[in-house]
Design brief:
It is a single chain. The chain has about 375 residues and is mainly beta. It has 2 domains: about 1-165, no CATH class; about 175-360, Beta Barrel (Lipocalin), CATH 2.40.128. Helix content is about 5%, strand content about 35%. Strand 10 (about 105) and strand 11 (about 115) form a beta hairpin. It is globular, with a radius of gyration of 28 Å.
Length: about 375
């Protein structure tokens, strides 16, 4: 099978673990499938082995300290489910794949190895993806002892890639892909707002809406859309009760504080005021609303003559505070409205297209 394929000839001890974890065997520093594996190098016929000791928790995650006698092979093995063989990846030029350090590392319940980071290789890690434990590898390097998620090191700032690629998920001509959120994303063009008083970021978002796209070889025709897509289908997540959201995120903790849901989609830019109010439109009921900045509760609403996709502004005249906003429906909100009416005929009312500027006094 060439110099990169090594056949497992002996597995001494198989450890008990959950079926979700039984897909990939990482490098020797992360292997939790077999206690010892012998392999033969087809290029010279030599036999080598490696050994380490792990304990396994009840979720199939490896925990504990690896023990080594002498050098071990860090550029180790992965289990290829397509062939049922263990594959030893080729080494980069100038790397012999032998190291002698050991460290207290383990896999936590999120599927990520925790422990000390080493240069230039970095800390080893797994990730649980769609029920399967897989590993990260470093672009241009052949080791399977990769770093933790989103943690580039000085030696390898280029980031991480998944070790095995699911060919069925690669896009291509004639293939159909479904993804959520939809092509309009969870967050699109409408700007968010930040309040230094609450230290919250307020984000207009959409959820529970998915897109199906089928690729085609595009032919350029002047004046026509040129996207390379043969079919563009919008779908609602089964059982979902809303699409639009106004979210509040704490920038100190990185956690979401509250969400206000809206039955239709939300294309409303947000204004945060010093008086603890938020102003936004964006829904196809033509409403312009005021929210409590700390709780997300709707405090006031007004039906404008069209949908509100404009950015609210606040200003003061003669000591009086005003909030102004443009109403006018079109472009992406109007396109999404048309698509939603194809899914749910009659459920989403027509929105007038006319534009106007509305000014409100704040009491």
């Amino acid at each position: 099978r060439g110099t990169t394929m090594y056949t497992v000839v002996r597995q001494i001890i198989l450890l008990a673990f959950s079926s979700a974890a039984a897909v990939f065997s990482s490098s020797v520093l992360g292997d939790y499938v077999a206690n010892q594996i012998d392999y033969t190098d087809p290029s010279n016929g030599s036999v080598a082995n490696f050994t380490q000791l792990w304990s396994i928790n009840n979720k199939g995650n490896a925990l504990g300290v690896a023990s080594f006698d002498g050098g071990v092979t860090i550029f180790g093995f992965v289990y290829d489910p397509a062939t049922g063989n263990y594959v030893r990846l080729p080494l980069p030029p100038g790397i012999d794949g032998i190291t002698s350090f050991a460290s207290p590392i383990g896999i936590n319940d999120a599927g990520v190895i925790t422990g000390t980071t080493f240069e230039p290789i970095g800390s080893r890690g797994f990730i649980l993806k769609e029920g399967v434990y897989t590993f990260f590898s470093i672009p241009g390097w052949a080791d399977t002892g990769a770093r933790t998620i989103g943690n580039p090191t000085a030696a390898h700032p280029e980031g991480l890639v998944v070790g095995y690629v699911d060919e069925t998920r690669k896009p291509g001509t004639g293939k159909t892909a479904e993804f959520c959120p939809s092509l309009w994303g969870g967050k699109n063009w409408p700007p968010a707002a930040y309040s230094p008083q609450t230290r919250l970021l307020y984000i207009p978002a959409n959820d529970n809406l998915c897109t199906q796209l089928t690729g085609e070889a595009p032919k350029y025709v002047q004046g026509e859309r040129f996207m390379g897509v043969a079919k563009n289908v919008l779908k609602m997540v089964a059982g979902a009760d809303h699409i639009g959201e106004l979210q509040a995120w704490n920038l100190d903790t990185g956690k979401k504080v509250w969400t206000t849901n809206m039955p239709s989609f939300n294309w409303g830019p947000v204004l945060a005021t010093g008086g603890g109010l938020l102003f936004a439109g964006g829904t196809n009921d033509r409403m312009f609303r005021a929210f409590d900045a700390r709780t997300g509760k709707v405090l006031w609403e007004f039906p404008t003559g069209s949908g509100v996709a404009g950015v609210p502004v606040s200003f003061q005249v003669d000591g009086k505070q005003y909030v102004a906003v443009q109403s006018g429906w079109g472009v992406d909100p109007a396109k999404m409205q048309t698509r939603m009416n194809l899914i749910f005929p009659g459920q989403y009312p027509d929105v007038p297209q006319g534009g106007a500027v509305w000014v409100f006094a704040v009491k």
